[in-house]
Amino acid sequence: MNTSSSWDVLPEKRGLSSSDSKVLGLASLGGALEFYDFMIFALMAPLLSQLFFPADLGGAWALVYTYAIFAIGYVMRPVGGLVMAHLGDRLGRKRMFTWSLLLMALPTLAMGLLPTYAQVGVLAPVLLLLCRVVQAVAIGGEVPAAWTYVSEQVPVNQVGLANGLLTAGLSVGILLGSVTVLALQAAFSNETILAGVWRVPFVLGGVLGLLAVWMRKHLQETPIFMAIKQRRLLYQGLPLAGVWRSHKALLLMGMGINWFLLASVAVVLLAMPKLLQQQLGMSAVQATTWQVLGIALQALGCIGFGRLADKLGIGRTAVVGAVLMLSAATVFYFGLQSLPVTVLAVAYALMALCAGSGACLGKLVVRFPAPIRLSGMAATYNLSSALLGGLSLPLVAWLNVQVVWGAWLYLAALCVLFAGLGWAFQKRFEAACKQR
């Protein structure tokens, strides 16, 4: 199957119109709310463990079971994402783009209204698990659906920027979740939060999500999907099978790029507060401040590297991101015991920016043929997230036990992989044809 046809190419070399900006705004807002809803569970897990499991279970085991429910989300993501992508390739992008947000908003709102273990016993954690499963289905469909929908609405020369903005919105959602939980903890005592205030972030996320669903309903189906449908060119078999049969190399390269994006976020952002406290003697507040600023810089990096992908292509952008990340990481990790904090702060800021360089993955959308495009992106994103996304934190923890520069070693290996994939992608898909 060819990578494009006359009916699936949008006009090039024009700026974003007001209609494009509206689509981007709604897509970014929805993505931010979905990741806020998805992450608020993890951020409040210690509190939820006290509310949804019996006291005689013990705090440690209750937290283990709560994190197990959280982990179910990662297991179910590829299942939900691939099913929703199949429907999106058959029924329309807009439907999946709206349903994914609805399936996130409803269980999040429900979580804020659930009875606790003290009220209904074992039914409480069962209901919590069911809500989490539905959330997982939604998050697995949201990102690929948003990338695909937006890419078929904006001009092709703006796809990288548009999807960089979408990916930045996901980081903003994580940031909003962190700030919300910190604000609750600063404003209320632990007893007050357990008495009922814990429900506020869930109800707020659910209500805002439903508002975003209503706003998305007013969007139009993409012109490319409408052309496919009108010309009876919908894929007749299983779209995922078509992706694997004809675009295996594209899929595997995309999975590798997504691994870099996920792993760099895990190491540079999620694991950083503990390292800063151990190596630099920072307080928890200082370390969290670095983390929050890092998340903001990573979001800016997603936008900047997404735009760079429009100019240079995915391959060259990956090489640039890998080289800059490796350089900054080398200064940071090997200078922890010797360099001034100001120098380390600059190196960390560059690392955080480069953690967004994997957002060039969004430009990959237009490489999949339109009839199987959503399934191609869903497989790329979800299979990589499920198979590789969870490896980073435990692997880095193990490496740090073996050698003091274990985190650097992992990042260095990732950078080599990222640069190698970028070089291979450029040679195979971008060198011999006009940049899309």
Class of secondary structure makeup:
mainly alpha
Total of DSSP H or I helical runs spanning 4+ residues: 19
**Roughly what is the average pLDDT, rounded to an integer?**
86
Strand count: 0
Q: Whole-number radius of gyration?
A: 22 Å
| Topology pattern, helix = H, strand = E | HHHHHHHHHHHHHHHHHHH
The backbone outline, from C-alpha atoms, is globular
Distance between the termini: 17 Å
> Uncertain regions: pLDDT < 50 for 5+ in a row?
none
Strand content: under 5%
Residues in helix, %: over 70%
Largest sheet: none
In terms of topology, how is this protein built?
Elements: H1 18-43, H2 45-52, H3 59-91, H4 93-113, H5 117-120, H6 123-151, H7 159-187, H8 190-197, H9 199-216, H10 223-230, H11 239-246, H12 248-270, H13 272-280, H14 284-312, H15 314-334, H16 341-354, H17 373-387, H18 392-402, H19 406-430
Please give a structural write-up:
Helices cover 78% and strands 0% of the residues. By secondary structure, it is mainly α. Helix 7 (159-187) runs antiparallel to helix 14. The longest helix has 33 residues, at 59-91. It is globular and about 60 Å long. It starts with 17 loop residues before the first helix and ends in a 6-residue tail after the last helix.
